[in-house]
Amino acid sequence: xxxxxxxxxxxxxxxxxxxxxxxxxxxxxxxxxxxxxxxxxxxxxxxxxxxxxxxxxxxxxxxxxxxxxxxxxxxxxxxxxxxxxxxxxxxxxxxxxxxxxxxxxxxxxxxxxxxxxxxxxxxxxxxxxxxxxxxxxxxxxxxxxxxxxxxxxxxxxxxxxxxxxxxxxxxxxxxxxxxxxxxxxxxxxxxxxxxxxxxxxxxxxxxxxxxxxxxxxxxxxxxxxxxxxxxxxxxxxxxxxxxxxxxxxxxxxxxxxxxxxxxxxxxxxxxxxxxxxxxxxxxxxxxxxxxxx
Amino acid sequence: xxxxxxxxxxxxxxxxxxxxxxxxxxxxxxxxxxxxxxxxxxxxxxxxxxxxxxxxxxxxxxxxxxxxxxxxxxxxxxxxxxxxxxxxxxxxxxxxxxxxxxxxxxxxxxxxxxxxxxxxxxxxxxxxxxxxxxxxxxxxxxxxxxxxxxxxxxxxxxxxxxxxxxxxxxxxxxxxxxxxxxxxxxxxxxxxxxxxxxxxxxxxxxxxxxxxxxxxxxxxxxxxxxxxxxxxxxxxxxxxxxxxxxxxxxxxxxxxxxxxxxxxxxxxxxxxxxxxxxxxxxxxxxxxxxxxxxxxxxxxxxxxxxxxxxxxxxxxxxxxxxxxxxxxxxxx
Lengths: 293, 332
Fold this sequence. Notes:
Number of helices of chain B: 12
CATH class of chain B: Alpha Beta
Number of strands of chain A: 0
Oligomer: heterodimer
Number of domains of chain A: 1
Order of helices and strands of chain B: HEEEHEEHEHHHEHEHEEHHHHEE
Strand content of chain A: under 5%
């Protein structure tokens, strides 16, 4: 085994071992993962854990500061802030995950296809991506909402479209390297179709960087949703959404009832921070150069 | 062509093959500033059932020749006839049918298998795509049979490539090539990445398979001892051209082209006493760049026999003895 041992055998670990290693080596990433899990639990089981209905008005208890009855206080319509933040997690995660996954997968297929076909297809696709990338995410999303109107579906579309080129770029770079590998030549000499080569042979081999990017995209998408809602172009009242809560609280009650704006702000910051930390840690954990130390 | 060649049509015939890769510059306005002449006029033929060795140092265009035959590159000029048909004129369905008949074994057993697929799927996929064995159960049986034909335990079908050694992986690569029941296999440095002991096993396997399935090989290699063992005829390439082509024993016993002689002289003798006493004269200089190859005979800057005319006229392959073709104006 001298001549052929040109790369070390891949080390396969069980899931539990891998998880334990991740916790030990990536304490910040674990913190991020905990935030992500807490947000996911809140979003999934909002009906059971939220103490009040997120849309129920209690005009006897408007703009109340945090108390035992309302842990995070109430807003100007007497709605319980904690309940709205819990339900808001659902809105944020639905929009975040759907946009990140749809945009991510579209970018994955476009990026791999672009690298595989090369030539003028690659050139045209990449220039279109350049044009899309020239706009900051939020400006691009604003333009899409301006064209299609507001509402959850349109917000998802508005966030998905600018994510596509960001993903396609990164995926294309990995796919360009994969395209030159002999097993792709073997697939071509076997007479496989383009779709089979792209989906069965190239996509599975660029999936590692893609998954990491997807985690970061969820955070970005949540932030974009909050920004759009804050600007009044995203989710509309009375749907509980963090950006919307921030807007309602920050404008009139910043000095008289600051908790209305502070708590949804913390929710946004923590969740986005959590996804970023987790994504970064995942990248470091998967990168073989950083793995064995 | 000789009388024998007319009687038996070659399985593969390469005529005047050129493959020039453009070198371009500039981002917006791309312009071609030159070209790499990877193959610059190559002719040879392979008879059904024989093994033709294609040898030469790295960068001489032997792999590119193989890639052109496999239709992985579109040649700049020249034609490739497979079983009498020019493969550049084929329609898509005809091409697909031809792909079944020509397969490849790659050099690197690590990068030639998709790391995300199980061995059984790697071998079974071409069978499935070409509809050779439509029934899934029978297909698994066929994959297991192919594995045992290649000297692997059929249970390897459930393994991933990373769970196997280099030699085992190379056998999987061979099993994949056999899956489509081809007649012609391009072995692109098929054993040069392997350990010497494993090399011998794989060479024996290739020989057995040739007998058993009546295969024809184009054996691309730089290891001359392997070529001598396995091939019936050998073509020597230098800088994109075939400089000598002869029967294996004839070429090794009686090399005529100065480059072939230098190449054979460079093979060490496995006896230190003889090796120490041997007068060894390495070829002078470096291989010239294929971007701007020398005029006339491409070997003339390094040749000990070169005369003035070698600088101008490009020597064509001449049949100096029956079946022994040499592209050199100075030998007779």
